[in-house]
Every structure is written in C-alpha cells, then in structure tokens.
Specification:
The chain is an alpha+beta fold. The protein has helices at 2-17, 21-49, 61-74, 107-112, 115-130, 133-160, 168-215, 218-230, 259-262, 270-278, and strands at 52-54, 80-84, 91-95, 101-106. 65% of the residues lie in helices and 7% in strands.
Amino acid sequence: MFIIFITALLYIYGNATGYGLSFVGIALIISGIISFASYYYSDKIILGMSHAKQIKKSDNPELFRIVENLCIGAGLSMPKIYVIKDSAPNAFATGRDPKHAVVATTTGILQKLNKTELEGVIAHELSHIRNYDIRLMAIVVVLVGLVALLADFFMRSLWYGGGRRSNREGNSAQGIFLLIGIVLGILSPIIATLIQLAVSRKREFLADASGVLLTRYPEGLATALEKIAKDKEPLEVANNATAHLYITNPFKGKISASWFANLFNTHPPIEERIKILRSM
C-alpha cells in the first residue's frame, strides 16, 4: 500500500510541478539517504530520545534472568537491556533485527509488576523482535516521514518556484495535476499516518498472541496490561514519534472509545486485548 501510495504521489507531484522524472529522482535520492540512516541508526536515535541507559546483569539480575530464559524458549539471541528512569509502567523493543535488538523497560514497570506479569511483558517485547516488528515499524516510520517530506517539498516548490511552464495543452493537464497535488499535499501525511497506526495496532495483537505462546500463561500479560491501564501516570519521555513502540499507549488520558478517534490510536483498546488474552 505504501509503495503504491508513494509512487502515485511522485507521479502527481512530478506532473503538477512540470518537472516529471527529475522530481522523482530528487525524491528517491533523499529517501535513500534517509532510509539508510534510519535502518542503521534508528535504534540509537529512539534510545536517545527516550533517555534510556544500558544496564549490566549485576544492575538487575532478576530482569536479566527473565529475558535470558524467555530468549532460550524463543530461540533468540540475548538483546541489550536498557532502563528508562520513569515511574510510569511501560516497555518497548527496538533494533533492526534479532541480532541487533534492544529491550527497554521503565523503572516503574520493574517496581509495579510481579515476576509473572513482567515475564508476560518481556515475552510480548521479544515477540516483536522475533516477528521482525522492530524492522517493519522502523520501515513504516521512514515511509510516513518520506510522505510528509514529499508533501512539504512539493508545497515549497510551488511557493518558491511555481513549476515549469510549457504549451497550453501541457498547462491544462498540469493544472489538473496541480489541483490534485495540492489536495494530496495536505491530506497525504494524514493518510500515511493512518496506515502506520493501523499496522501498529495489528502488530500489537500479534505480539500479544506470540508472547502467550512463549509463556503459556495468558493471565500474566492480561494482569500486567490491567495494572498498566489503571496507572494514570503518563510517560514523560514519550513523544508522537516513539509512542507506537511501547506496549501500551504512553499518553494516558488521550484514548477515546469512538471508532473515528480509534483510527488515530497507536494501540488497540487495552480492554479488547485483555478480553482476547483471557479467551485463549
């Protein structure tokens, strides 16, 4: 969907400005540089934004034992473990593949969950790693950013350059593309974000199911999600760019029950996740 969407945008923007394939070429060069950088450095950027610090086994032996045991069961390499000093309970996984993966937890989740509940959360995050969600979501975030970049580049090109002018027939066709391009320039970042959020919600359901297959105990994750949902403290280090990574929405108090508002949620309703877990 994203490839078709971006290809259509490039075609319309190129014809609207009169630059054709040259617009496509510039966009591909820019997107290539961004994609390369994000693939290799997105985890470092995310960890830096989250103020996460890597810990050693001696810092928290119990957490390391939980991760090690679950990794053995999942057949995964041991990821690096990071901790965020924040009393709000939450956790996320990042990295480009299982061999370059990171699991990060807040100090709040370590303090407020018991061992069984923490195992459920860690199994969920390791499932994101095993299912390559960490790579998928990194790519999706890059594509969403690319759509926003293309829209901004197109709108700025109209403001400063006005596009090329050719013959009357060309101008007539160009005018149609220009109108469509302006509409898409406004709406395309929103559409791209909706696709990103839909993918994020689906992968959360999958990680819940995969995590339960790993622990063989759905109640552990279900109870953990209940405790996290009841805790009303928002995660201070979270932002719109990283919110989809966490096990639950880090922005407490911003979740709506309406179907339209749910389109803009990074996570599926926590009540629905708990209901599915307890039906297993």
